[in-house]
Amino acid sequence: MDIRPEDPTELPTAHRVALLSQNEKVFHVILAQQFDREFIDHLVRIAEMVRTIADAKPGAMFLKSLLGHKRAMLYFIQPSTRTFMSFASASQILGMPYDEVRDRSTSSEHKGETEDDTVRVLSQYCDLIIMRHPVEGFAERMAHMLNAMRRPVPVINGGSGKDQHPTQALLDIYTLYRCFGGPLAERVAPHAEKNHFAGKTIAFVGDLKRGRTVRSLTYLLCRYPGVRLLFVSPPELAIGEDILEYVRRHGIAYSIERDLRAVIRECDAVYMTRLQDEWDTAGESKNIDYARYHLTADMTDQFKPDLAILHPLPRRHELDVRLDADPRAKYWDQVRNGMWIRAALIAYLFNVDGAVLDHYQSYYSY
Ligand code: NCD
């Protein structure tokens, strides 16, 4: 039976989430709303274990033995450095070969093949498709389309238009766990139900209207009662009302701010973003004074001692390079954390997360 909705994004969120699962388990990874606390805690645990195991040669060889029988396809027709490289590296960590299509002009789309057919074809060569696409809802529509094939393969959304970037949100929250979550032993503890985010103030800064990473991470942070969110942006680039409505519905305290300097003192984490002017239709962001949304080295005297500075990258001028050497700068860590949490996610999708857990418990816990 073909249960493909015409436009899945029009369905209620709970319905969309249910359609992306199989056997009560996340199958396609499309929306950040698919991840509950239990899921995030589990992936953080597996990511910590994978990176510990990978550190020694026998462990790295064990990890490489897990998915040598699977193949991934990276269909990235929108520019990407980190997301592409970290999925490629995560696949290699687990021994899974991957192939890539990054340029439509080298595929049969150039001869008039539809994107839908291209994805159907690609799915025949692999067991997982990771995709980045400029159109909102594309990855979700492809997930439903592939469900109707005889051999459905999971889709991971590596960035869909201005809408969502769920695996970036996973690496962001993983980075925040490493900042706020206590020692490794605590982060890998089973059923780590402690809410490390209660009482923390996290500021999102910059182009919040078109920054998909901000949207996805906000959904995840709504899983942590007691967190406080500040949305710091020019009025023209304010966070969407749909997100604010979600935040309110989850009882999360927030405020809308216009000036980073006025609030930086209060922040436990600051999430910087660049101006997303590739989405401009008529140069509308040219007249915006973005300098008020820059984090600069002269502000350090106002930073909390353990402030966490995050940025999904790429950066422009909003994040002063003179902050790079400051121990509070976590953006290079984010890049590396992305590789480990994506390895954890892939391990989960192919049901080898249990093998990682068993290996860790037999070699690393006492
Ligand atoms: C982000 C993206 O593509 O949304 N980059 C990333 O994946 N790390 C952020 C951006 O492009 O500004």
Topology:
Blueprint: H1 13-19, E1 21-22, E2 25-26, H2 37-53, H3 57-64, E3 72-76, H4 82-93, E4 98-101, H5 115-124, E5 128-133, H6 138-147, E6 155-160, H7 166-180, H8 184-187, E7 201-205, H9 212-221, E8 228-232, H10 241-249, E9 253-257, H11 260-263, E10 269-272, E11 308-310, H12 331-349, H13 353-364
Parallel strand pairs: 3-4, 3-5, 5-6, 7-8, 7-10, 8-9, 10-11
Antiparallel strand pairs: 1-2
Helix pairs in contact: 2-12, 2-13, 4-12, 7-9, 7-12
This protein binds N-carbamoyl-L-aspartate (NCD).
CATH architecture of the largest domain: 3-Layer(aba) Sandwich
Distance linking N and C termini: 50 Å
Q: Walk across the major sheet and give the strand order.
A: 9-8-7-10-11
Low-confidence runs: none
Q: Give the amount of beta strand, in percent.
A: 5-15%
Give the overall silhouette. Answer: globular
Number of domains: 2
Which small-molecule ligands are present, each listed once? N-carbamoyl-L-aspartate
Give a verbal description of the structure.
By secondary structure, this protein is α/β, with parallel strands linked by helices. It folds into two domains: 8-164 and 336-353, Aspartate/ornithine carbamoyltransferase (Rossmann fold, 3-Layer(aba) Sandwich); 168-279 and 286-333, Aspartate/ornithine carbamoyltransferase (Rossmann fold), CATH 3.40.50.1370. It has 13 helices and eleven strands. β3, α4 and β4 form a beta-alpha-beta unit. α2 (37-53) crosses α12 (331-349), α2 (37-53) crosses α13 (353-364) and α4 (82-93) packs across α12. The chain is globular, with a radius of gyration of 20 Å. The model has no long low-confidence stretch (mean pLDDT 95). N-carbamoyl-L-aspartate (NCD) is lined by residues 82-83, 159, 165, 168, 212-213, 274, 312-313.
